[in-house]
Amino acid sequence: MTLTTHRAEAEPLQSERILEMYRRMRRIRRFEERASELYKATEIPGFLHLSVGQEATAVGACWPLRESDGITSTHRGHGHVLAKGLDTASMMAELMGKDAGTCHGRGGSMHIADPGLGIYGANGIVAAGLPIAAGVATAAKLRAAGDVAVAFFGDGAVAQGMFHEAVNLAAVWDLPVVFFCENNHYSEFSPEAEQHRAPLEARAAGYGIGYEHVDGNDVVAVSALMTEAVARLRSGGGPILIEAETYRWHGHYEGDPERYRDANEVAAAKQRDPLLIARRHLVAAGAPPALADAVDREVDEEIETAIAWARSRPEPAPDTLYDFVAAPRTPLPEPASFPSDADPFRTMDAVRLALEHELTADPDVFVAGIDVGAGGNVFGLTRGLAQAFPGRVRDTPISESAILGTAVGAAMAGMKPVVEIMYMDFIGVCLDMLLNQAAKLRFMTGGRASLPLVVRTQFGAGRSSGSQHSQSLEALLAHIPGLTVVMPSTPADTYGLLRTAIQDPNPVVFVENRLQYGFKGPQPTACHRIPLGKAAVVRPGTDVTLVSWSRMVQDCLAAAETLAAEGISVEVVDLRTVSPLDRETVLASLAKTNRLVIAHEAVRDFGVGAELAALAVDEGFWHLDAPVTRVAPPATPVPYSPALERLWLPDRNAIADTVRRIAAV
H/E element holding 572? Predict the structure, then answer.
């Protein structure tokens, strides 16, 4: 694609428009100059990455954007968010870590966001903003309101896999997104020539998307190019990659000794100061220099006022430490019981029915993942949904980071994505999007970001799937504050918990056991929903508490039935939600039985069972009459050999033997 305008043409622009561009650039420049001084004076903590010298890219790129358009930014994002409309006072307070800051002091310099202004986050992870922008653009495309997304990134991000996945997904889905590269010719300390062999133009051609190059120091040229690009996107055009060549005057971070470049290089770059170029455009448009001088004075006063205000604001109060980790949940009672002889249905039916119900009830819900559309999922769970809900059940490339990033961006933009990671083992491929994005963005934005998304995945040992397709990794996920981890054990619970998860305002990882897809149980009514974070006593007892989750609950129930014939009364507790952990139900059962056994399919060491054991010893110590014991596989990868896998995975007999031993103490 070739756009017709990508050179500086001042004449068609009113001098007032150029002056406003100059004002915005001058605001960014002065904000960052003062931030640098405040950082040296220790008034700003943490890290500080400045974009001095790159102001024209931010202002020019955001010039044609409206409030409902979205941007994602980088660790060097002050200019982008200011150009998109964020105020200097709350932003300066944020850099100082004050409660009045944009994000209540939770994000700081690298993590400023305000989705209400279409600012979906500066980001401390290189290239993370690109798949998030794809999600924002997906929301825009599904809503068909003509909105667009702009993903700012530096040339160093091109080496990241997330760059490839995001651009490829955007191309395949024909998303309204601009991938805007601010090429300042350095990846942290390394010059561009040492980082890449293929130019961005060639890369864009490889993805089948448009490419344009622009002088990133000329705000008029950048705004002209972006105005045409954005207009094309609003009319239905697909993604474009824009490369704006610029230069950062400061080091990678404040305090950087800059041994990798010499002063002459920096001095030469400063000869093309974006502010001086804009002043020349003003003169060419007939505006007297005094107008720009007046803007300088006004901006200086604005920034000093912002600093004074930020200094006067208090730090966050100690009692707010736990604020913004998760969005409050609407209380949901336990559902009414339903007849045990109700018509049976399978777990796989429960998944499909829950998805179908939510897709029907809420137009903001969409489903995406590898082969979930035309293929109906590798296990047939979503078969027929793509035909029933055109455009809302979307096949993706095999790109787990793009899938998760799309969910994050779309959720922040107000959608309710349900995305699928085909195997739980593949969570490792896209862990950043869970660990550093979905789980943390609400906290880091001081509650400004909402993340109502569900990640469906599955696991299950016992069918010789091997070490990379069988792992039970719930402990890894449960250790991440901000994530909810759900692992149902019955078809009815799968239906009720999945429906609740989709309606929940927090990121939920919903883990199914594939060996249970054919498992049958009574079918509840269509309105059946189960609260998250609440365990269930699925078999009452008096002698031993046996806690489990997912498929192993069924083995625990079978073991309890066997032990009942021997006079041992076992209370079986199904966690249902692993995190947040229902401590109260577990402790109440322990107080009654005075003995605790935990059974799980994940390896024994450092697992959820260890957390439950610590809970019993800490808060339930005086109730204990026997050691707390775990029944779980040893700390080895899952074997492929059927004989070794049977030895590795505990069964109902191993559970029963352990309970007998503890009951006898």
Answer: strand 570-574
Residues identified as active-site: 400, 469
Q: Which residues contact 66 (CB under 8 A, 6 or more apart)?
A: 118, 147
Cα of 288 vs its chain's centroid, Å: 48
pLDDT attached to residue 10: 44
Cα gap 251→523, rounded to integer Å: 62
Query: pLDDT tens, 224-258?
Result: 999 999 999 999 999 999 999 999 999 888 998 98
- 494 CB burial (10 A radius; 0-12, 13-18, 19+): buried
Q: Is residue 9's pLDDT more than 70? A: no
- Tell me what percent of the residues of the chain surpass a pLDDT of 70: 98
Distance of CA 538 to the CA centre of its chain: 34
Comparing CA positions, the residue from 285, 269, 291, 309 lying closest to residue 23 is 291
Longest dimension (CA), the chain: 98
Quick: pLDDT tens for 38-63.
999 999 999 999 999 999 999 999 99
SS (H, E, C) 194-243: HCCCCCHHHHHHHHCCEEEEEECCCHHHHHHHHHHHHHHHHCCCCCEEEE
DSSP H helices in 259-369: 263-270, 274-284, 289-312, 347-361
